[in-house]
């Protein structure tokens, strides 16, 4: 059982999800948290990863490290997304096996489910249909990570589990103009239009696809909950159970930012998967449910954006 003195390695602690896990662990009184920046440790380098585990010997591991991005980045850098995420998963999971990690949690993503999966998406729908083409490289790497956890459990008896979060946003998000996901991209776009008095903001796609969103701090809480309460084969969905259209989302963000101009949808740009809502019944039945509603989370996220990039 993980306790306050356990040596815990949070891989990817500088990213949005990893920093949320680190923050949650710290706030709950865990005193022995191990971290390393990308400059200090390149997890795509097998020797460096194995040496790190040999030296530090963590007892518990959260694998939040990943190369992530929105539709444009995923579709442009397919090989990079496949290679880097595949290497991170392989190196960290195998090193955890070699050095007798007591328990590991690997994070997948709901975007790796089939493009036209029935809704809401149950865990067993993975690999039952074609993937979203713009996201294929990332998806294949993440699927490999999930399967590594199950096969290491089967062959070696490792207590390695996987969580499948829905679309995430929150504190410490990536606001890169080309490589970000929809919420940080729209926050930046509306904010820049507001301060520069730009009369309209263009949003990719038709605005009709539906998406579910979860605040990263809620995911962090779910990850720690799973470390205590889940020890089994198979991945487990983590979602809010609530969905909005991209058009509704754009309106929410426009209001949070305070932008008064027009919003125009560019139908020549891809929509991605038409609908994506995960079924979190399995996790909810264990006793966990999300806490932060979308509007509140967007306000917190925008304030974090202003602290870092407002000028």
Describe the fold and architecture.
With 311 residues, the protein is of the alpha/beta class. Helix content is 43%, strand content 16%. It is built from ten helices and twelve strands. It has helices at residues 16-27, 46-56, 71-76, 78-98, 136-156, 182-196, 216-229, 246-257, 281-286, 294-309; strands spanning 8-11, 33-34, 60-63, 103-107, 160-165, 167-169, 200-204, 210-215, 235-238, 243-245, 262-266, 275-276. The protein has a six-stranded parallel sheet, sandwiched between helices. Strands 6, 8, 10 and 12 form a four-stranded mixed sheet that branches. A two-stranded parallel sheet has the order 7-11. Strand 4, helix 5 (136-156) and strand 5 (160-165) form a beta-alpha-beta unit. Helix 1 (16-27) crosses helix 7, helix 2 runs parallel beside helix 4 and helix 8 (246-257) crosses helix 10 (294-309). The longest helix is centred in the first third of the chain and has 21 residues, at 78-98. The protein is globular, with a radius of gyration of 19 Å.
Task: Describe, in short, the structure shown.
The protein has 311 residues and is α/β, with parallel strands linked by helices. The chain has helices spanning 16-27, 46-56, 71-76, 78-98, 136-156, 182-196, 216-229, 246-257, 281-286, 294-309, and strands at residues 8-11, 33-34, 60-63, 103-107, 160-165, 167-169, 200-204, 210-215, 235-238, 243-245, 262-266, 275-276. Strands 2-1-3-4-5-9 form a six-stranded parallel β-sheet, with helices on both faces. Strands 6, 8, 10 and 12 form a four-stranded mixed β-sheet that branches. It has a two-stranded parallel ribbon with strand order 7-11.
């Amino acid at each position: 059982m993980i306790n306050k003195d356990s040596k815990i390695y949070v891989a990817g602690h500088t990213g949005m999800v990893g920093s949320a896990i680190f923050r949650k662990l710290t706030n709950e009184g865990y005193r022995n948290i191990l971290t390393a920046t990308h400059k200090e440790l390149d997890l795509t380098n097998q020797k460096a990863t194995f040496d790190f585990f040999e030296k530090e010997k963590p007892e518990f591991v959260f694998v939040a490290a990943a190369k992530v991005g929105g539709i444009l980045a995923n579709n442009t850098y397919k090989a990079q997304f496949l290679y880097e995420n595949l290497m991170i998963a392989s190196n960290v999971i195998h090193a955890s096996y070699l050095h007798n990690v007591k328990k590991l949690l690997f994070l997948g993503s709901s975007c790796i489910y089939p493009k036209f999966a029935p809704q809401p998406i149950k865990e067993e729908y993975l690999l039952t249909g074609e993937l979203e083409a713009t996201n294929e490289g990332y998806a294949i790497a993440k699927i490999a990570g999930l399967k590594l956890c199950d096969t290491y459990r089967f062959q070696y008896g490792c207590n390695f589990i996987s969580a499948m979060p829905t679309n995430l946003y929150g504190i410490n998000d990536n606001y890169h103009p080309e490589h970000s996901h929809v919420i940080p991209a729209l926050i930046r776009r509306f904010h820049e239009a507001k301060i520069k008095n730009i009369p309209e903001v263009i949003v990719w796609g038709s605005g009709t696809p539906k998406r579910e969103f979860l605040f990263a701090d809620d995911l962090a809480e779910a990850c720690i909950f799973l470390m205590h309460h889940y020890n089994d084969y198979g991945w487990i969905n983590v979602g809010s159970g609530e969905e909005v259209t991209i058009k509704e989302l754009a309106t929410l963000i426009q209001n949070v930012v305070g932008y008064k101009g027009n919003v125009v949808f560019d139908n020549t740009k891809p929509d991605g998967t038409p609908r994506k809502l995960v079924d979190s019944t399995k996790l909810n039945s264990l006793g966990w449910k999300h806490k932060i509603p979308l509007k509140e989370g967007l306000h917190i996220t925008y304030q974090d954006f202003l602290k870092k990039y407002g000028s």
